[in-house]
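Lab notebook, design round three. We kept the backbone fixed and only want residue identities now. Task for the bench partner: fill in a sequence for the structure below.
Input structure tokens:
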């Protein structure tokens, strides 16, 4: 399938590893030029090199913390026009809500709600003016089915989801769509953090913790960043302009509701 987005420019946040890198590779495969960000420069440059060897696109790298105003300015200055925005950053730490104070909540909301909203604010009007825009927020299955030890994530990401639910309906008439990808358990570094939280809470071994997580997935396996990236690319396609305000679960069937 040709998604008809070759030559477009995407800003993909948190793209040196994991799900962000999966999105970057899939979009590059469609001929989309990239700006990719992450804090660690070495992994970011390695990711850019990997993408360039696989696809004939330009890949600009911006080593920055996307949860800060300075970081976002650097990232946005790397390309004059952003047609596709993939918001993403590390998830908040697991823990127990009685231990969290205002600063912990502010940090989580800053990273997983305000940062995406600020990026959208700074790119959406250009997309509207050019009559094309695709915005994808990488959130979490926890938005639909809260995970007890990830309370900071449950809260902050649901705030973002509520906001973009409204905005997506305001901008779609300009062929600008906003959708959220909700990962269940995927085989990335972040998965290790979830397993370690189980170890901490239950005293089980890491191996048993991973088995516990696997046992929650009807597909019987963890998701891969590559298949996550393909879903992202599809929603960014020229033909996906009628799909907006959606929360797409990628969880191997883990969510137990009758409807997704
Ligand atoms: P990952 O493998 O740890 O990769 C995270 C990427 O984001 C890295 O490139 C990281 O690079 C970058 N990053 C983190 N914080 C950043 C910041 N402040 N500014 C810029 N870049 C930043 O994680 P992942 O599994 O791809 O997860 C992506 C998102 O999906 C996270 O929010 C995670 O909580 C969520 N999620 C993941 C799963 C899963 O099973 N994997 C499930 C549910 C939700 P640097 O560290 O060098 O900055």
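Proposed sequence:
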């Amino acid at each position: 399938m040709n998604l008809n987005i070759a030559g477009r420019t995407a800003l993909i946040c948190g793209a040196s590893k994991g799900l962000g890198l999966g999105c970057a590779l899939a979009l590059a495969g469609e001929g989309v030029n990239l700006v990719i960000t992450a804090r660690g420069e070495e992994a970011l440059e390695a990711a850019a090199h990997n993408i360039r060897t696989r696809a004939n696109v330009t890949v600009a790298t911006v080593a920055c913390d996307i949860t800060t105003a300075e970081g976002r300015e650097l990232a946005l200055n790397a390309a004059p026009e952003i047609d596709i925005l993939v918001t993403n950053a590390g998830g908040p730490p697991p823990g127990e809500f009685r231990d969290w104070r205002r600063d912990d909540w502010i940090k989580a909301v800053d990273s997983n709600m305000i940062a995406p909203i600020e990026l959208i604010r700074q790119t959406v009007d250009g997309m509207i003016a050019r009559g094309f825009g695709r915005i994808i927020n990488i959130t979490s299955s926890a938005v639909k089915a809260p995970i007890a030890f990830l309370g900071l994530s449950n809260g902050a990401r649901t705030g973002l989801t509520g906001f973009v639910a409204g905005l997506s309906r305001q901008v779609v008439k300009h062929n600008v769509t906003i959708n959220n990808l909700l990962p269940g358990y995927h085989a990335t570094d972040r998965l290790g953090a979830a397993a370690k939280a189980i170890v901490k809470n239950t005293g089980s071994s890491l191996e048993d913790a991973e088995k516990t997580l696997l046992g929650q997935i009807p597909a019987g396996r963890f998701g891969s960043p590559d298949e996550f990236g393909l879903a992202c690319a599809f929603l960014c396609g020229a033909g996906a302009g009628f799909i907006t305000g959606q929360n797409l679960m990628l969880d191997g069937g883990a969510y137990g509701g009758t409807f997704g």
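Keep this in mind before ordering anything: The chain is about 45% helix and 15% strand.
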